[in-house]
Design brief:
The chain has 432 residues and is mainly alpha-helical. It contains 19 helices and no strands.
């Protein structure tokens, strides 16, 4: 049964069910972008340093991540606005600004680190100057968003999500201790080592991240503009059943893909790097280099290729989610479905965020230190964003009869509580 209830019982005659790749959209792209080069680095570090014992976290993050993203999607589909747009309708302007400004900073740092990892991965595969590759990837990501029509751009993002398969492929070229993996997955390990708990917090912060909330809600709203027969559910409640089914399927599959790939990365690095004692992994490219002598050149190639593919997916999502958040908070015209001449401030924000992130790679700022502070900012911002997300999703004035209820509402609040505990844990670990 749906977690929200309709007062209007009327239904439209449903067309034939679309193919699965057409059903999958914002949820798939959001889940895939979560496994960006920075996330790959975190999962690689977890596997290299602690072997299989950190894998249990992904069984816990999956339902929580899926619930929060499903709630974000429903806000976008129900209201026809992104998350920041709904915040602007419900709260004073300073609330939106106080959340979107740190989100913008964290996204720029994150996409800068992702571009750096992509450049290093290209250097690893092709040699040449990694900074030239950084600039090239940054320009490509900007052009994809500015020049491509929205439908074509969404199709490109969907195909890029297939890059995640490279990490599953690595499982077939390494020797896995299946009994150790099963224990690590099903029996949570609690250690007194503060580094272990810092890693657990990092996994939660990487997996449940604020930019994902903004992106999926905004993409649901964007899709309505591209489908003239569809309207926000508050205007056309008869579309709710079909929309609910699609969002649920799209999000569950997208988040499952994200967590399965994360598990594959932890498993691969646990089976190779941890087993060989190579625990000093600081980046996703370090992991690709270290894997080669242990699992062969093929493993290195598919690991490095995956970094580039997921980066091409994640960088536009990071820049786009920042532009949606800032633009909706500032009440600009926003949307990748709009022409650049229609939404100049929005596209300028997309371009500037990418360019600044790109330029960070030309400074002496250590990328891992920048990523650490990005994770801190994301962790701190995630808690109030998730609380506001839940308040909007349960607000009848905004969501009408489609307020979330039941198990989805419970999981949403549990996710808020666990993220709060994770942030406290991160703060404690920083002073230990």
């Amino acid at each position: 049964m749906s977690d929200y209830q309709m007062d209007d019982k009327s239904e439209v005659v449903e067309p034939s069910k679309p193919r699965i790749f057409e059903i999958l959209g914002p949820g798939l792209v959001t889940g895939a972008s979560d496994d960006d080069p920075s996330g790959i680095a975190t999962y690689s570090q977890a596997g290299a340093q602690f072997g299989y014992i950190a894998s249990w976290t992904l069984l816990l993050t999956y339902p929580l991540m899926a619930a929060v993203q499903m709630i974000s999607a429903r806000i976008g589909r129900t209201t026809g606005r992104g998350l920041a747009g709904s915040m602007a309708k419900c709260y004073p302007r300073w609330v939106g600004i106080s959340i979107t400004f740190p989100l913008l900073i964290a996204n720029v740092i994150n996409l800068g680190a992702d571009l750096g990892a992509m450049g290093d991965a290209a250097h690893l595969l092709l040699s040449g100057n990694s900074l030239i590759y950084v600039a090239a990837f940054g320009i490509v990501c900007i052009l994809l968003q500015v020049l491509l029509k929205y439908k074509r751009y969404v199709a490109v993002l969907k195909w890029l999500s297939l890059a995640l398969l490279s990490y599953i492929a690595t499982l077939f070229v390494v020797h896995i201790d299946w009994s150790a993996l099963t224990r690590g997955l099903l029996l949570p390990t609690f250690k007194t080592d503060p580094n272990y708990w810092s890693m657990i917090v990092a996994i939660f912060g990487t997996t449940i991240s604020p930019y994902l909330f903004f992106w999926q809600a905004s993409q649901e709203a964007e899709d309505l503009k591209e489908k003239p027969r569809q309207e926000p559910l508050v205007k056309h409640p008869q579309e709710a059943k079909r929309a609910d089914t699609r969002i649920t399927l799209d999000t569950l599959i997208g988040m499952a893909a994200s967590n399965i790939v994360a598990l594959a990365i932890i498993t691969t690095t646990a089976a190779t790097l941890n087993k060989a004692g190579a625990t000093n992994i600081e980046s996703s490219v370090d992991a690709a280099k270290a894997i080669e002598p242990l699992a062969g050149q093929f493993a290195k190639i598919i690991f490095a290729t995956g970094i580039i593919g997921t980066g091409l997916l994640a960088v536009p999502v990071l820049a786009g989610s920042a532009a949606y958040a800032v633009g909706e908070a500032a009440r600009w015209k926003v949307g990748l479905s709009r022409e650049p001449s229609e939404a100049k401030a929005f596209y300028t924000t997309v371009g500037l965020a990418t360019v600044v992130g790109m330029l960070l790679n030309f400074t002496p700022i250590p990328p891992m230190k920048a990523l650490f502070w990005s994770a801190v900012i994301n962790g701190v911002v995630a808690v109030p964003v998730m609380v506001i997300l839940m308040l909007i999703a349960t607000n009848r004035d905004v969501m009408k009869q489609f307020v979330i209820r039941g198990g989805l509402k419970t999981l949403g609040w549990i996710a808020c509580a666990i993220m709060f505990v994770a942030v406290i844990g991160m703060a404690v670990a920083a002073f230990m």
